[in-house]
Amino acid sequence: MKMANQNQGDLREQVERLQEQNRLLEARVAEHEKLQQSCSNNLESMRTTLDALQGLLARCRADMVLQQQNHPTAAIGPEQQPRGKLQRANSTPAAMKSEIELLRAQLEVYKNDFAGERIARQVLQLEKNQLAGELQQLQQQNRTLIVEALNGSQADQQDVRSFSRRSSRMSQISDAIGEDDQHADHLQEGSHCRHCDRAFGDIQSLETHIDECPAY
Q1: d(Cα 147, Cα 81) in Å, to the nearest integer?
Q2: Residue 199: φ, ψ to 5°
Q3: What are the CA-CA distances from residue 113 to residues 34, 38, 182 (Å)?
Q4: Which residues neighbour 194 within 8 Å (Cβ) at sequence distance 6 or greater?
Q5: Residues with pLDDT less than 70, the chain
Q6: Pick from 96, 87, 95: which is nearest to 59 by CA?
Q7: Long-range CB contacts (< 8 A, 24+ apart) of 148-151?
Q8: Residues 6+ apart with CB under 8 A from 43
Q9: Which region ranges are annotated with the description Disordered (predicted)?
Q10: CA 110 to CA 127: how far, in whole Å?
Q11: 129 vs 36: CA distance, rounded Å
Q12: DSSP states along 147-179
């Protein structure tokens, strides 16, 4: 009984420890879900910005081509064009080219950031899957320990019933032994002469003695 109670107490402590580990893992899973949601939001925002930059870069390239078509400097030599008009024609494509280079650099930065965020999101997903697996394993261990604790409680009840049956059987045997002792005492009393207190081995000898007992 004492050993069974101790085992049941150990199982209860293991269940409590597993439940605490379950709570910690659930908190970590929830935290990873928040981080994953934040990464998803960042990826969506960066994707929108990236699309906008790509669209702006395409428009700048189209404008640059249009400017070159509207200002064909190759057909007319520099010495045949007015000085101010030549500077304005040359400055516009140069400025647009510089803007395109800047946009291209920004686009490259956003591409790198986008790739980094995507890798971070994949890492978070792997960690979340690992934590979910550990949580599922601990929950299974928790259920197993609960079943063992319930089975241990049923075994204790069976031990109590078995002990009760053994006690009842021992009581019956003790009563039977007491009755046998009383019967033996009664027989022993019947083998003594009440007048001279002489003992005899059997009833017949006692009856013969009674007829001849001097104290009778």
Answers
A1: 96
A2: -95, 145
A3: 20, 14, 102
A4: none
A5: 1-9, 67-68, 70-93, 96, 149-150, 152-192, 195, 201-203, 206, 215-216
A6: 96
A7: 148/11, 149/8, 149/11, 149/12, 149/15
A8: 114, 117, 118, 121
A9: 73-92
A10: 25
A11: 12
A12: HHHHHHHHHHHHHHHHHHHHHHHHHHHHHHHHH
What is the model's pTM?
Answer: 0.39
- Please give the Cα distance from 165 to 172 (Å, whole number): 11
Which two tokens mark 155?
A: 């075994």
Domains of the chain and any CATH numbers: 2-153 (1.10.287)
Model pLDDT, residue 128: 75
DSSP 80: G
| CA gap 178, 208 in Å, rounded | 31
**What is the rounded CA–CA span in Å between residue 64 and residue 104?**
14
Query: What is the Cα–Cα distance from 203 to 216, expressed in whole angstroms?
Result: 17
The angle at the Cα of 92, spanning 100 to 94, to the nearest 5 degrees, equals 50
Beta bridge partners, 192, equal 199
**Burial per residue of 168-201, b for 16 or more beta-carbon CB atoms within 10 angstroms, e otherwise:** eeeeeeeeeeeeeeeeeeeeeeeeeeeeeeeebe
Nearest to 135 by CA among 57, 27, 48: 27
